[in-house]
Amino acid sequence: MKILVMNGPNLNLLGKREPGVYGTGSLEEINVSLQELARTLGVGIGFMQSNHEGALIDCLHSSGAEYGAVIFNPGAFAHYSYALRDAVAAIAIPVVEVHISNIHAREDFRRLSVIAPVAAGQISGFGVMGYHLALRAAVDLARAHQGG
User: Fold this and answer.
1) CA pair distance 87, 50, nearest whole angstrom
2) Inter-axis angle of helices 129-145 and 27-41, to 10 degrees?
């Protein structure tokens, strides 16, 4: 089994962009830590980051052919991309939405996620640890989805 980790716009700037909000670790450092956890959990893992909505949609559409679940940090797209919402709703594998910051404690426009209602669940506010929590959840969801 493999889990796909998708990251949306501006997450390629982690460690440089607003470190007080998003921390000082880079996306590559997060990916390395997730690879280590995936090995411990006995699953494979893949990574994708794009600043382009269409690329994220295309990746979601094709994810079920190779992956058992998706961890998705849609970044700012979480708040308004109905196209990404529809792509998440259209695929047959579970999607766990993750945010580094607590979107519910930030500016009003960040408190709503159009992705959350069609995701299996949402994890926000735990920093990088949120990705680790999401990976554990995604593995459990994928195993349950596949029948064990």
Assistant:
1) 15
2) 40
22 is catalytic: yes
Q: Which residue stretches of 16-128 are H helix?
A: 19-22, 27-41, 53-63, 82-90
The domain spans of the chain are: 2-145
In this structure, which CATH number among 3.40.50.9100, 2.102.10.10, 2.40.70.10, 3.30.70.1170 belongs to the domain 2-145? 3.40.50.9100
Average predicted confidence (pLDDT) for the chain: 94
Q: Is residue 132 among the annotated active site residues?
A: no
Catalytic member of 67, 99, 131, 132: 99
Token code pair at residue 33: 């830590």
- Pick the catalytic residue from 22, 67, 131, 132: 22
Per-residue pLDDT of 97-119, as tens digits, reads 999 988 888 778 778 999 999 99
